[in-house]
Fold this sequence. Notes:
Blueprint: E1 8-16, H1 22-29, E2 37-45, H2 49-65, E3 72-76, E4 80-82, H3 86-96, E5 101-104, E6 114-120, E7 129-134, H4 135-138, E8 144-146, H5 147-150, E9 154-155, E10 160-164, H6 167-170, E11 178-184, E12 189-195, H7 197-207, E13 212-215, E14 220-223, E15 227-229, H8 268-278, E16 282-286, H9 292-298, E17 303-308, H10 322-331, E18 338-342, H11 345-349, E19 356-361, H12 367-377, E20 381-389, H13 397-408, E21 412-417, E22 420-424
Parallel strand pairs: 1-2, 1-3, 5-13, 16-17, 16-19, 17-18, 19-20
Antiparallel strand pairs: 3-10, 4-14, 5-10, 6-7, 6-9, 8-13, 11-12, 14-15, 20-22, 21-22
Amino acid sequence: MHNGDAKKVVYLGMPSYGELTDGAARAFYxxxxxxxxxxxxxxxxxxxxxxNMNHLWCRALNAVHRGERVDYWAMQHSDIEPLPGWLDELVxxxxxxxxxxxxxxxxxxxxxxxxxxALAHESGDPFRIQCxxxxxxxxxxxxxxxxxxxxHPLLINTGLWVVxxxxxxxxxxxxxxxxxxxxxxxxxxYEPQVESEDWFISRAFxxxxxxxxxxxxxxxxxxxxxxxxxxQPWGALEFDKYHVDKSVLDSRPPADWFPHNVAGWLSEDxxxxxxxxxxxxxxxxxxxxxxxxxxxxxxxxxxxxxIDTFDGRGTDAQGNTLPRFRRNLRRHGVAxxxxxxxxxxxxxxxxxPPVYDLVFIDGSHDQASVRADAAGAIPxxxxxxxxxxxxxHEIDPGxxxxxxxxxxxxxAIIGRCGSLAVVRPTVAQAGVLVDV
Length: 436
């Protein structure tokens, strides 16, 4: 059953009371194509979903009772379709964030963009919630978030999730659906109320003092009349208008917005400066690598055009970086703001219109390349437009020399942050002096 004691053992369960989608079936058997995990796959089907889940939970309890090893327990619903390798990534994120329970964001199957992730009601009433989170709110939160990020106990969905198995506390929880009928004094009528099995067990986790998180790091589709994905913000609702009159996140401090998980050399202070400079503007970026600076710009910009060869030149990531770049944009919810121009900057700049308020130059760092990028970018600026150069410091003398040439010809450095130099240019293409 298991392939040796060196690998971590995962019980992966699939409860079902309906049809199994093709995508869910593929994901069930490609959860760990790397072979890093030793997976024991179990399924249980009947019309009672909570009972199915309890059967699957008991499989792991009984395995440990028999003296077998269980390191993690995971669940995938029969209409949830994550990408291959999802379980490897989910376990890694669980351990990296030092969590006991980690669920994956899954939207509800409608056009509003609601999710089954909710915040427990401040009254403690198990039949009430503060609100659900929407897909648009999810992308205002860190990629992986906890109750601390939302200000209320987090009630996660069980469509795709993993727990770090501990027999002591795992014996104390179970799945159940609670129902009741109450009289609504306001409406003067009787109404049914329900506490779903996923929110019930989430409350049990919190009662035990476990650290519960949720993530959008694992991309998935929720299969219904169409596939409802979690890879970008979408939906008619900005917030759950059925429970609150404004987003619960409006009163929260800003989330950890900086894309630390994206490869690159931009510092957080530099990223914040770029975001402020880009606010509400049409931006062009020359040199993007994996998207760290692009994400900072796009979070505040009206739109961002990106020029890059996406072949990893000048970095440690030789080869095609475009898939990683696109995935990073989707993860941070800015893909819809970014227009990609793949190619050499000289060729692309020649065909772009003069519509930009800000051009961020971070391509090749030799003096001739920086000079050429600046000369090609200046004619594309609207009146009052700015250039921003990265790596204006002694480590990159080519950047320093090119920027200093602009200054000597009449441009002005009007701001500095880290190695960023914000320049108001007066030098046009071919070295002719003009006022931009």
